[in-house]
Every structure is written in structure tokens, then in C-alpha cells.
Amino acid sequence: MRARSAKALGYALLLSLLIHLILLFGTHFELPNWKPVPPLTVAIETPPAPAPVVETPPPPPPPSKPRKATPPPVVPVTTLPEDIETNPAPTLEPVTDTPATPEPAPRPPEPVPTVAPPPITTRQAFPAQVEVVYSVYRGDQGLKLGTTTHQWHVSGTQYLLTSTTKASGLISLFYSGRYTMTSKGNITPDGLQPVSFWIQRGQSNDHTEIAEFNWQFNTLDYGNATDRHTIHIEKGTQDQLSAFYQLALAAPHQSGLRIALTTGRKFNQYTYQFVGDEILDTPIGKLKTQHLARVTTKIDASDSTDIWLAITQHYLPVRFRLGTRDGAVLDHWINELRVDGKSIAAKAEEAAQ
Q1: Quick one: CATH architecture of 120-347?
Q2: Which residues, at least 6 apart from 296, have a Cβ–Cβ distance to it below 8 Å?
Q3: Are the CB atoms for 128 and 154 separated by under 8 Å?
Q4: Structural domain boundaries in the chain
Q5: In terms of C-beta density within 10 A (0-12 exposed, 13-18 middle, 19 or more buried), how is residue 151 classed?
């Protein structure tokens, strides 16, 4: 009961206070004058680019101070007795840098020694007409393949030389036609000087390989119809056929010799070495010959050539062995010999040797 009375008394006092305030100040209230706060503005600025860094080279090192030369050690001088002879000290020459002497270039291999043959006019006259018939065998098998005939004709200072090969026996059933080489040129004091050379194969009269010599300008034009070559040549160059008879004209041989020749298809220089004197037992009798062999570095026989020149028969080739591109060897043995229209056989005294 007392709590309710106290509460009512409190409300009455609060109401009385409010009435007095109204009476004193009235009902008008004025709020305080608050100034508005300006809005906040944010500006984003790009920072300036950093200045490029320039590397400053390090300062050069201070020059090194020259080292003081160390004086040589003092060698005590010993006084020699007067009765001992003294030799004056040798004079020392100043030492200078001498450039190194370059090593000498390697020397080329020594060429095969050659002996220049004497002029043809100082030797026995060569026949005006010669015909040599050879039997052709394959290697050492004794299989006869055919015959080869060389014909040599001279008119004044000009020569005509032909070689005709024909198959025979069973081989002729598989290989027909002829293989003909022809060489034409001049005879000079130094031997043969070919002017033209050509090859014919089979039944056709077409020249498959041709070589033309121009001695005024020392040039050689060779090859076939679609592949021609022109080169400079030296005095004494031969063709494949004239080389046999140039060796005969240059005989007798005592050392090696060098011959440049063309086959009509290619051109090479060859070295022949003198093997020695040999006796050959041939169908026309025993013949004393000089054996020459081509120097080659090939292991097979594809580049080999051996020639036997009959000493008592004008050094004519009476046997020759030729290597082929497939490595086989064609061995040519003389079977008949006619000189100036006469058949020739070995002399009795030669056969007895």
C-alpha cells in the first residue's frame, strides 16, 4: 500500500515540474544551429615514374706502382793468385724475340723417273702397213671371246689406225656386231699426234664417243652427243688406241713414263712402269718382249693395263691385258702378224733364246 502511494507521489512531482517549465519558457523550442559537414572528395593520382637508374661504372683501379728491380745478389769477389791465368769473360749478346721459323710444306711425292725417248728419225723406220690379229680371252680361264684386229697405215706424215673386235664361237650367239676404234693424226719427231678419235658400237655407223684434238690451241674436245667437255692438253697427249703405238715408237724403255690419254668418254693421265724383258711363247713363235704395266692404286683389275712389246718386231704390241669396269680382264694374244703385206713369224735365233 505504501509502495503504491510513493509511486503516485513521484508521478505527481514530475507532472508539476513539467507544468512549471511550460509556464516559464513557453512551448517554443529552438534546435541548435548545426553546420553541415562538407562531403569528402577522394582523388586517385598516378605516382610519377621512377627515374631510370644509371649504373655508374666503377672507378678504374689505381695504377699499379712499378716494382722496384731487385738488385742482383752481391757475389763476393775472390782474388786469384797472380800465377793462375784467367780467361776473359764471354760477351753476352742481347736476347731478342726471334720469330718462329715456319715449318716447311710437305714435299709432293717423287714422280716416277722418266727418260725422254730419242726422236723417231734416229730409230729404225716404222712400217708403212701393219696388221695384227689377236685372240681375246677372258682372264686366265682360257675362254675365247673373239678376235681383235689392229690395222696401221701411213701416208706421208699422216697415219690411220683402226681396231675392230668381233665375237666368235658361242659368245657370238649372245653378242653380235663390232666394236671399232679409229684414230687419225700426224707423225712428228716426238711421235704420234692424234687429230681425231671415235668409237662405233654394234651394227650402227654412229660414233658413240668422239675426241677432237686442236693442236693450234692445245685443246681437246671429247664426249658423246649430249655430254661434251673441252680441256687444255699438253704436248704428247694420246687417245686410247694411239697410246699403244706411241709406246712402240718411244721404245726401248728402261724406266717409267707418263702418258695423258682420252678414251673418248673420259680423260686421265697414266704412269707406266718398266717391268722387265720377258719371253712370250706365241702362235707365231717365241718373242722377246718388254713388259710395261700401268701404275694403279685400285685393288681390283678394273684400271689395270699390261703391254708386251716385241723387241725384234718394231716393238709392236704382241700381247696386252685390259681391265674392265666390272673387274674382269680381257687378255689379247697375237695370233697373226703381217708387215707391209707379208706374214711374219719369229726368227729362229729368237725362238732359241
Answers
A1: Beta Barrel (2.40)
A2: 303, 304
A3: yes
A4: 120-347
A5: middle
Question: In the structure grid, which three cell numbers stand for residue 234, read together?
Answer: 699438253
Cα–chain center distance at 295:
20
Tell me the three cell numbers of residue 215: 693442236
pLDDT band for position 353 (cuts 50, 70, 90): low
Q: Is residue 260 over pLDDT 80?
A: yes
For residue 252, whether the previous peptide bond is cis, meaning omega lies within 30 degrees of 0, is yes
- The pLDDT of residue 113 is 45
The DSSP bridge partners found for residue 271 are 258
* SS (HEC) of the chain: CHHHHHHHHHHHHHHHHHHHHHHHHCCCCCCCCCCCCCCCCCCCCCCCCCCCCCCCCCCCCCCCCCCCCCCCCCCCCCCCCCCCCCCCCCCCCCCCCCCCCCCCCCCCCCCCCECCCCCHHHCCCCCCEEEEEEEEEECCCCEEEEEEEEEEEEECCEEEEEEEEEECHHHHHCCCCEEEEEEEEEEECCEEEEEEEEEEEECCCCEEEEEEEECCCCEEEEECCCCEEEEECCCCCEECCHHHHHHHHCCCCCCEEEEEEECCCCEEEEEEEEEEEEEEEECCEEEEEEEEEECCCCCCCCCCEEEEEECCCCCCEEEEEEECCCCCEEEEEEEEEEECCEECCCCHHHHHC
Q: What is the mean pLDDT of residues 101-118?
A: 46
Mean pLDDT value across residues 15-33: 56
Reported confidence tier of residue 48, pLDDT bands at 50, 70, 90: low
Rounded to whole angstroms, the Cα distance separating 247 from 151 reads 16
Which residue matches cell numbers 687429230? 195
Summarize the confidence of residues 307-330 as an average pLDDT. Answer: 92
Instruction: Please indicate, yes or no, whether the overall pTM of this predicted structure exceeds 0.90.
Output: no
